[in-house]
Design brief:
- It is built from twelve helices and 25 strands.
- It is 25% helix and 27% strand.
- The protein is of the alpha+beta class.
- The protein has an eight-stranded mixed beta sheet, with helices on one face. Strands 11, 12, 13, 22, 23, 24 and 25 form a seven-stranded mixed beta sheet that branches.
- Strand 1 and strand 2 form a beta hairpin.
- The two termini are 42 Å apart.
């Protein structure tokens, strides 16, 4: 069993020590000429004094976000100087932070932090080899933002947190409404997500990064359970299904958006909380992260609320901003209708149906895919500024281009599998084969999927993370691959 930071005691499940305290976890809140806004959460045992947080400007007010399961999540907000960065101190330990408003700055992007089964059983050195590489890189040349594009948690083990939840998942999907919800089930679900976040956040390499680089996070299916939203309504709307989603959403708000459940974060796009998409803005830079899970169903990616607030996010973006769009699933990719057709015909392949339905390229979502691509393309084609899509989810690394009217290019960068094991060689080969057929869902705007620089296949089947650099107003990206190492930079 891996050794975690912080004090621990035996968890009720008996499978993992319960983490009692964490180092600070920073969250980016945007900034302007007056300073970069930051929020931090820090966990301590319930009843213990709140941590002392200060900057050069003085002591920061700390308040209780929530107190659950014998632990208190404390939060505080403060500013650091724009354009230069600064430092803050927690209980006497000082952490340095680089500013996203500096003309030359670096951004790291990660996704898919775990595996579907047995994630807690892996040795930390093997599991977090790329996290450690990223943490070491940050100490040498600091990043200003850490973008986490989905599957931060890998919570699939939630299906075994209570005997009745285990029975629920064993039933056919359309029969799961037969399992009644009890207070004990609700409590087990909430405790599972709460504990899993603390285990995740106290792994040493991640803890080093999270205390020094402000994160911007958006969830995907494994932060809830595998394929959430791409399952039949009878499963999603069953009493246990709704309780599972509610528990995951509660902890997502606390541990990925750093707000109290029921509150809308300042960076949130929807005041009703129906959709949890966010926009974080700095001078000349906007990061827009749509929520592709809260409203997802078999027949849709987002509902009316999600589309409305995403349109507003673009409309409210200052002209000239560079936009980074965090689409948890890739926006540019091969057409998947043939693969879906095969999955419908071949016995035993139905287990892949939710994975295919998760993608923008699914035949079921084709109209929404066109709408999404048209929104992205219109930003550059209207002369508003440049835009890059950053995605994960597929456990591979690749890049894509969509040729725009007027001669521009929309770039997509895919980095997936910071700790998820690399897939079998057949997987990237099949996707590469599908990508050869090309795709033009928008008339006159052809999509191409391209290999990483000097890489032999279209999709790189290695664990990886992405770096994005701005130097003298010129943007570039490079991938760090577990076996191959750092790619040459790509101009974006």
């Amino acid at each position: 069993m891996a050794v975690m930071n912080g004090d621990a005691t035996t968890a009720p499940s008996g499978t993992q020590p319960a983490v009692l305290r964490t180092d600070p976890i920073l969250f980016a809140q945007g900034g302007d000429e007056a300073g970069d806004r930051l929020r931090a959460i820090i966990v301590r045992p319930a009843g213990e004094a709140a941590p002392s947080v200060s900057t050069d400007a003085g002591k920061a007010e700390t308040y209780e976000l929530v107190s659950l399961f014998g632990r208190t999540v404390h939060a505080c907000e403060f500013r650091l100087p724009s354009g230069t960065g600064g430092s803050y101190e927690v209980d006497g330990e000082r952490f340095h932070v680089a500013s996203p408003a500096h003309p030359d700055m670096r951004i790291a992007y990660v996704s898919c932090n775990g595996q579907e089964e047995g994630d807690l059983d892996r040795g930390i050195e093997e599991r977090d080899v790329l996290w450690q590489r990223l943490a070491d890189e940050n100490l040498r040349e600091p990043f200003s933002l850490l973008l986490q594009g989905g599957d931060q948690l890998y919570a699939d083990d939630v299906l075994f947190c209570h005997p009745e939840v285990e029975r629920w998942q064993s039933l056919p999907k359309k029969e799961r409404g037969a399992v009644a919800l009890t207070p004990q089930i609700t409590e087990a679900l909430r405790r599972f997500y709460f504990d899993r976040y603390l285990i995740t956040y106290t792994r040493p390499a991640f803890a080093s990064l999270a205390a020094r680089i402000p994160s911007i996070m958006m969830w995907d299916d494994h932060d809830i359970m595998d394929g959430w939203g791409s399952h039949p309504a009878a499963m999603l709307d069953s009493p246990v299904g709704r309780a599972l989603f509610t528990a995951a959403r509660e902890m997502f708000l606390i541990f990925q958006l750093a707000v109290q459940p029921g509150k809308t974060p300042a960076i949130g796009l929807d005041e009703t909380g129906t959709n949890l998409g966010i926009a974080v803005r700095y001078p000349g830079l906007s990061i827009i992260a749509p929520d592709l899970r809260s409203e997802r169903r078999l027949e849709r990616v987002m509902g009316d609320v999600g589309w409305k607030v995403l349109d507003q996010a673009f409309a409210q973006t200052p002209k000239g901003d560079r936009i980074l769009v965090l689409s948890s699933v890739p926006a540019l990719g091969p057409r998947l209708s043939f693969a879906e057709f095969i999955a419908d015909l071949v016995p035993g392949s139905s287990e892949y149906e939710d994975d295919l339905r998760d993608q923008w390229q699914s035949r079921t979502h084709r109209d929404e895919w066109r709408r999404f691509l048209a929104l992205l393309a219109s930003w550059e084609e209207s002369g508003n500024g440049q835009l890059t899509v950053v995605s994960g989810e597929i456990h591979l690394a690749t890049r894509g281009e969509m040729r725009l009217q007027g001669g521009g290019v929309l770039h997509q960068l895919v980095a997936s599998g910071i700790s998820h094991p690399a897939p079998s060689p057949a997987y990237p080969w099949v996707l590469g084969l599908l990508a050869r057929f090309g795709e033009s869902p928008l008339k006159g705007r052809k999509i191409r999927i391209l290999p990483l620089p000097n890489y032999k296949t279209t999709y790189a089947g290695e664990r990886n993370y992405l770096t994005i650099d701005r130097r003298n107003q010129t943007w570039s990206a490079a991938w760090e691959l577990e076996e191959t190492g750092r790619t040459d930079p790509v101009s974006i």
